[in-house]
Design goal:
The complex is a heterodimer.
Chain A lengths: L3 H11 L3 E4 L9 H6 L3 E4 L3 H13 L4 E6 H6 L1 H10 L6 E5 L13 H11 L3 E5 L5 H14 L3 E6 L4
Chain B lengths: L6 E2 H11 L5 E4 L1 H7 L8 E3 L8 H11 L5 E6 H6 L2 H9 L4 E7 L2 E2 L5 E2 L15 H8 L3 E5 L2 H13 L4 E8 L13 H14 L6
Parallel strand pairs in B: 1-9, 2-3, 2-4, 4-5, 5-9, 8-9
Antiparallel strand pairs in B: 6-7
Helix pairs in contact in B: 1-2, 1-7, 3-5
The chains are: A alpha/beta, B alpha/beta.
Chain lengths: ~160, ~210
């Protein structure tokens, strides 16, 4: 849906300095563009790490963003609870929504059942992005989070291009 | 933990407290946080309570990357380290030279009643024991230390803190049986704001 260059533009527009990530087949395609775009890329071994690394970066004055698949969101619940809610650090995120665009051809992925309820349960203000035309909405949503100090997420639909 | 551990957690922390530079960032978690708080406060102390257990090393990595001008010392436990072993790999992948990880290995989940960890001899069917320093070496830490006595720790602490980083130090300590878990020294968001302000206002040391 988005090229690496578009994602770099998004990150630059929002003022992101570091992307803390574990790839999936969509997010991973953006890594080289992010690195060549002058934004530091930090690869973690498991998604729970990403929130704490981002918290440390934020406390140190950087502007990190967590970029993980929705399965990693499921895995990292306690870490994000601690960072976003105990410490109230406004870490933004890009969440890849596995199978969203393949619901008719590949039904049965339970990511479609749990992803949005879990985002709501964690009280994360998110925007579902299902098409390229929503690019400005992504920028505005993440930028507002930088301004008002609240954690924001964009949930990017994955599947067919 | 070996049955012959001679280090006491509080003595090990007192030794560190005596040589810690004012500009160093110290992140403490779990039992280490509980005892570190008793030694006084420094604006660059980040008492990581409440925490997500095991994430102190990751928090330290982020701070070390954001502030390469400062030494970042993380005080963690063996149980927490087990919960986030992958962070050791992430740390060496990023290779911040200013990060020092100190793991206080008492072999038990102390604050829940001293149940053995799966890495301790008591927690393993074969009664063997997992060596954290070996894990650290295999994870790619360029500087790895292991201490089993207060005297050895006191004699070599400056060497540990000045070794090429990232540094991993294992301190085999006796559990503090019956000790309570750490209590937050105030609301976390307020402490985060104060910490960030202190970091901005305090002069950067030359590492």
């Amino acid at each position: 849906m988005f090229s690496g260059d578009q994602i770099v533009s998004l990150l630059q527009d929002v003022g992101i300095t570091h992307v803390v990530t574990l790839p999936d087949s969509t997010l991973g395609q953006w890594e080289s563009a992010i690195e060549t775009g002058g934004i530091a890329l930090i690869r973690v071994c498991r998604e729970g790490e990403a929130w704490a690394v981002a918290a440390g970066l934020h406390l140190g004055g950087a502007a990190p963003l967590v970029m993980i698949q929705c399965t990693g969101l499921f895995e990292s619940g306690d870490a994000l609870r601690n960072v976003l809610h105990d410490w109230k650090l406004p870490i933004p995120s890009i969440i890849g929504y596995r199978s969203y665009l393949n619901q008719e051809t590949l039904p049965g992925d339970t990511c479609l059942v749990f992803t949005e309820p879990i985002l709501r349960a964690w009280q994360i203000d998110y925007r579902l992005i299902t098409g390229p035309a929503q690019y400005p909405e992504m920028v505005d949503h993440l930028r507002e989070g930088r301004t008002d100090g609240n954690p924001r997420a964009v949930l990017i639909a994955e599947g067919r291009a | 933990m070996s049955g012959t551990a001679k280090l006491s957690l509080i003595q090990a922390l007192q030794t560190l407290h005596a040589v810690r530079r004012p500009g160093d960032i110290v992140i403490s978690a779990m039992g280490a946080a509980r005892d570190w708080m008793t030694l006084g406060t420094n604006p660059l102390d980040l008492v990581f309570v409440p925490s997500s257990m095991g994430q102190a090393t990751s928090l330290g990595l982020g701070l070390a990357l954001a502030r390469p001008d400062r030494r970042v010392i993380v005080l963690s436990g063996d149980g927490g380290t087990l919960m986030n072993l992958g962070s050791l790999i992430t740390i060496t992948a990023c290779a911040p030279t200013n990060l020092v990880i100190l793991v206080f290995d008492n072999g038990v989940y102390e604050v829940t009643g001293a149940q053995p960890t799966p890495a301790s001899a008591a927690g393993r069917s074969g009664r063997d024991r997992i060596g954290f320093s070996g894990l650290a070496r295999a994870s790619g830490f360029p500087s790895v230390f292991r201490f089993g006595s207060n005297a050895e720790w006191a004699n070599r602490i400056e060497e540990v803190l000045s070794a090429p980083g990232p540094v991993f130090g294992l301190l085999e300590v006796a559990p503090t049986i019956g000790a309570p878990g750490p209590r937050p020294p105030g609301p976390a968001p307020e402490r985060a704001r104060k910490f960030m302000a202190a970091l901005q206002s305090s002069p950067s040391p030359t590492r």
